[in-house]
Task: structure prediction
Amino acid sequence: MPTTAPAFSDATASDSALRRFLHGLPGVDAVGLEARAASLGTRSIKTTAKAYAIDLAISMIDLTTLEGADTPGKVRALAAKAVNPDPTDRTAPRTAAVCVYPDMAATAVAALAGSGVKVASVATAFPAGRAALDVKLADVRDAVAAGADEIDMVIDRGAFLSGHYLKVYEEILAVKAECARADGPDARLKVIFETGELSTYDNIRRASWLGMLAGADFIKTSTGKVGTNATPANTLLMLEAVRDFRAQTGVQIGVKPAGGIRTSKDAIKFLVLVNETAGEDWLDNHWFRFGASSLLNDLLMQRQKLSTGRYSGPDYVTVD
Amino acid sequence: MASAFEYAPAPESRSVVDIAPSYGLFIDGEFTDAADGKVFKTVSPSSEEVLSEVAQAGAADVDRAVKAARKAFEKWSALPGSERAKYLFRIARIIQERSRELAVLETLDNGKPIKETRDADLPLVAAHFFYYAGWADKLDHAGYGANPRPLGVAGQIIPWNFPLLMLAWKIAPALATGNTVVLKPAETTPLSALFFADICRQAGLPKGVVNILTGYGDAGAALVEHEDVNKIAFTGSTAVGKAIARQIAGTNKKVTLELGGKGANIVFDDAPIDQAVEGIVTGIFFNQGQVCCAGSRLLVQESIQDELLDALKRRLSTLRLGDPLDKNTDIGAINSAEQLARITALVETGEAEGAERWSASCELPSSGYWFAPTLFTNVTQAHTIARDEIFGPVLSVLSFRTPDEAVAKANNSQYGLSAGIWTEKGSRILAVANKLRAGVVWANTFNKFDPTSPFGGYKESGFGREGGRHGLEAYLDVR
Amino acid sequence: MSDNRLSVFKTYKLYVGGKFPRSESGRVYEVTDSKGKWLANAPQSSRKDARDAVVAARKAFGGWSGATAYNRGQILYRIAEMLEGRKDQFVREVADAEGLSKSKAAAVVDAAIDRWVWYAGWTDKIGQVVGGANPVAGPFFNLSTPEPTGVVTVLAPQKSSFLGLVSVIAPVIATGNTAVVVASADSPLPALSLGEVLATSDLPGGVVNILSGKTAEIAAPLASHQDVNAIDLTGADATLAKELEIAAADNLKRVLGPQPVDEGGAFDWSADPGTHRLTAFLETKTVWHPTGALGASGSSY
Result:
């Protein structure tokens, strides 16, 4: 059973205690935060550093399909791509995971067996999260039972925005409990805040701490289903949160920006954020992920350019 | 475990700039040798490589330049403002066109990182000309009465820390208001002003309107002394500023002085900590701390001192010091051996007086002038490093307990140029800003500049304002 | 009342820190009218009187500069009201000092009273005229505000003993500065009497301090004083002005030059004063505040 990090056990003793704790976190100045993110975005990553970053980024992708039209065929194709992203170059690293809906988890597990690529499943009535707790927990149970290695849950933004922090916290605890497996490793839990709906940076910081206190293994920006998803600024803010949390508790937590990251240039900027904010301990797909789909092909084209010296084109990467 | 993310060198190309082996003075639209034929070398502070040899102006050259400016003044001041405006707009545009070349040049001659010349200096230079261009035909509406008149010939002396930006701050308002200028750049950074002379030629600016005299302090003193100069604008040290004030006593020369500072950056316990850390870094390590308005005194509330210093040291450890032309360099070279010696001496004084030194561990290049980002804790108001301007990447950390104490310590200085306030409480920002005796106050930000924003100090930081509508007054006969 | 009644002379005293001390030096000097007739003995201020006046002015600065502009305006207007009631005294003193007919002296006093009214109305307007928001190219609210320079030494005009005096004091204090005033050396009596009016006009003690004596002797320590922020050289001749300006450079005092010259009494103090005396002793403070971010992340907050 997960428990709150001991350093902060008081913070979650009651709704009011949790509110006091979250509202006592330092504020975020929006202009300064965005300026810092933009400034790190001007880093110039070239040659060997670029090659390193591209491979690292590929290895961090949660290759995602979350469509109503998903079929086992689509999921298998994606799984094949995850294992062997560039058919012309077998040295390309595998992605970190394939991310699907719970009913596709079993298909993905079968397709990826033995590959080392993880299966992540969204759950908890993704993306809105507007369902009864029992329904959400059943969703999680299904995915875990199907063999998902990782669960991407959404928080109850309505409860968060109306100030019912303890409700959000307890829900995460409950989901975390469902991630446990008696006969194998627990599923790792990614907690999605849907930052675009939280609206303020102060809220994103509070949500980050709330998620970490509740035992999240990863904190994740967004579902990819709303207008604003991962941005350098909100990801920077979450990287600060995991950095500070580890400094205070010794517990390391991962970060996953998701949605809207489509180019290699963007991905490299995020890796710079990781490198210069949380530090190199997070430069590993155990601790940092990209929730993305089209990003992979752009990384592969850039990778081809680096190895051949020629610019590549969309016909030289696979459409899946 | 991942291997570290090592950024490969990403140097900006030097080939965009073509530095001639020698340059003359720019007088009356022509490049010319100094009357006595003297020259001096300018070196790149990051490598000590000689970049070029430039003419060294003496009193005779000052006289020639002032005469040229005087001669040009008659027509220039009589030109309709709308025509003067167009010259300035042309200059602004040419600067934008040539901004990469000028950024690389400035980085070579000054030692500051290309990131700063590219993203801060050059955009601000162009913006400054663009802003004052628009004033040239609107002076009747500037609040200085109808048809305000220019002063005449402006003698302008600028420092080495922002060579081209300080040139823009001086020349743009002077020309917009109808003055002609004789400008002396600092001896360690003469090149960008000489390139600017070429831009004036490209823009078709009438001869003699802008004259550039490269040289040393003696040329500056001769310019201040010259009886046909109507206006002195100086940016530099407080000691020289006082000397100028004495020199012009009893004359009708109008003067503006933008001098030293010892800015207090005040961090309250309810600050947005991560942004405050960035603000502290920007405040004292921007341009290697060689900034008159640097936040060189950190005043931190005692209740968050340890936490803030830990965060600050962690952040300083990520600063990348090295080749200024590398696009990933955060900290470049100190501008000169002389300045490095001054910084070193003051840091030694800090240690001798018992303050506790901490420097980021970074490898310093073997040639050139370098100083690692440094902070001192256990500093009190009585320490030399809390009072004297170091003009280098050295932060003095002091603590306070209450807002009253913070304000009292911030104001306890002969200077009054800049200050910073970090708090999430709006009324505290306003209350503290109100009490600070400083010309520029940055709340939850630091070292921001804009052509529309007046800049200048209280007390011994000088007088007069540069920038904005206020900046026109310095060049108009309105007293 | 009998014509034979022996009148009561007034002992003229300095006005420092809201009090009326004699000179610390114990010295006085004879003040005569324009024809050389003895009028009174005035205190001959020393360096120490100058020092005390600076201490008083500095002490008063925080409160006066922190008062609302409206409050300062009310007090300056109150000064005009008080003067109106004591007009006869000032007409007599100005006539004696400047050798004017009673009617001409009355016109001067009227103009001086009106000048207080003019500046009373400026206290809460100058900030709007010379300050304001600057449209910087970024997510910042940027506001420039004029603030008083601090303690200002004012060398009052030598000839225009009252209208000139008021014309140099009022703008200095209207904006929140405090003043150490050196009165006309030969004609200090209207200035010393003005102190009595100021003391009864709700003006906090120390905001205006008035010294009489030899201008050069008092001005020298004030020009070099490190706790004086500015100096108005109106009452100095060219030689003295240059000396004082050199001394003032030691702490970079703001210097208002000896123009407009009042040599020979030629300067017309009744002309529209404009705003330059108000702005001469103002600093511009510019404060940057972040506004919301540009919304690049979908959040401006």
User: Anything to note?
Assistant: The radius of gyration of chain B is 22 Å. Chain B has a mean pLDDT of 97.
